[in-house]
Amino acid sequence: MDIADFIKAVSTFAWLLTIGLVVLAIARASRGKPIKQASTIVVVVGIFSLLLTIVGFGLVFLQADERGVVVSPYVSQGYRPEPLGPGLHWIIPGETVTRYTISKQTYTMSISQNEGDVYGDDSITARTSDGQEIFVDSSVIFSVDPGRIIDVHIAWQDRYIDELVRPQVRGIIRDAVSQYGVEEVVSTKRAELTDSITTALETKLEENGLILVDFVLRNITFSEEYSNSAEQKQIAEQLALQAELIVEQKRQEAEQARQEAQGLADAVVIAAEGAAEARVIEAEAEAEALRLIAAALENNPSLLQYQYITKLAPDVKVILMPTGAQFILPPELIAP
Fold it and tell me: What confidence tens digit (pLDDT) does each residue in 240-256 have?
């Protein structure tokens, strides 16, 4: 309770006291027991009540977030040219004060029946440039310009929300949406759409004494037909993506099999090359051995016969030969 309300409450109590004293004085006088100086007391209390009433009606207290327009029959234009600021003010009896808040106000239009300022579906129906119908939820945060309270009062008084903010927001959103395709509205151009609406709304509110604090594009809902078609499109895209993944998987499996086959083929080639190289080395070794043997036989022809005898059997000590047969080995190789 501010001081103006307090004084009004005191004046009301004073009038009740005055009436009570009058009733009491009459009652006592009717019984022959009048109150001494009753009339004087009643007059004093009455004057005090009247003064409090005059003061109470003349005092106006405005909160820090309030401004007041004084409607006065004592000036030619019908109102004081300057608004009242916060604090305690005195107005002449007969004048009235219309209060305006300059704090931030939020006006919401939503498809959900309990979220918006209007009960029920209050979303904005708009059509995109490609003819699709969408439903836009939005919130507008604004305030009254303290320096233009008089202009707002003259043009709109307390109707600026219902007759200015609401219709302007709905109209500007419809105009902005019509410049974009439905895919742009929900994806690539949503931020641009929001900026476009904000700029246009800021200009329009400023022209009428309001300050736009922020515009919030809360949600975009599609018609049932478009939602169904979008869902089918998304399913088709997912199936196509899945098919691409399967093809890629098969390609990778085929590539892996090819690489494995190539690895096996390379292994066979390497093994064959190794075997061939080993055979060449073996052949070269045999040839070298034969060359050495040939060289040894050339220098010692009897060596071949000696090798033959030693290979017959390791335990042979005596060889019987027919009469007149030649010795296998020359006599010089036979042990004495």
Answer: 677 677 778 888 887 88
Q: Note the pLDDT tens digit of each residue in 283-294.
A: 777 777 777 777
Q: Where do runs of H (alpha helix) occur along the chain? A: 3-30, 38-58, 149-155, 160, 166-177, 182-183, 190-207, 224-299, 303-312
Q: Report residue 48 as tokens.
A: 């005090």
Q: How far apart are the first and last CA of the chain?
A: 153
Is residue 180 within 8 Å of residue 128, measured between CB atoms? yes
Q: What is the pLDDT of residue 38?
A: 67
288-327 burial, b at 16+ Cβ within 10 Å, e below that, comes to eeeeeeeeeeeeeeeeeeeeeeeeeeeeeeeeeeeeeeee
**Whether the Cβ atoms of residue 19 and residue 77 lie closer than 8 Å to each other:** no
Helix axes 303-312, 224-299, angle to 10 degrees: 110
Tell me the sheet residues that pair with 140: 107, 215
Q: DSSP 3-state assignment of 221?
A: strand
**pTM higher than 0.90 for the full model?**
no
User: Which residues share a beta bridge with 98?
Assistant: 69
**Separation in Å, CA 214 to CA 54, 65, 205, 220:** 44, 19, 12, 18
Structure-token pair, residue 102: 């300059």
